[in-house]
Specification:
The protein has about 90 residues and is α+β, with helices and mostly antiparallel strands.
């Protein structure tokens, strides 16, 4: 949604955005960029398809925007979930 809103504001010819996610669990020691080095980590691979006659510069900027959108920031931050019954 953030990518589409950004492209619309810039009046770029983005027709559609499609996002596919793949989730798996990996051993922490197999992740070179991760702070956690023990146990298992959730691993998410994201693939974004941008449909429209966009330049390479526009496509690169939209990828940059996707990586700082609120959902991406939430998923890459430390999360504390507390569940209770009502």
């Amino acid at each position: 949604m953030t990518v589409a809103l950004y492209a619309r504001r810039k009046q770029w010819p983005l027709q559609e955005v499609s996002v596919r996610l793949h989730h798996s669990r990996i051993h922490a020691e197999d992740c070179a960029n991760c702070e956690t080095k023990v146990g298992l980590l959730d691993h998410i691979e994201s693939e974004i398809e941008l449909i429209g006659t966009l330049s390479e510069e526009q496509r690169a900027k939209l990828l940059e925007i996707a990586e700082i959108c609120p959902v991406h920031r939430t998923l890459t931050s430390e999360i504390d979930i507390r569940t209770k019954l009502r």
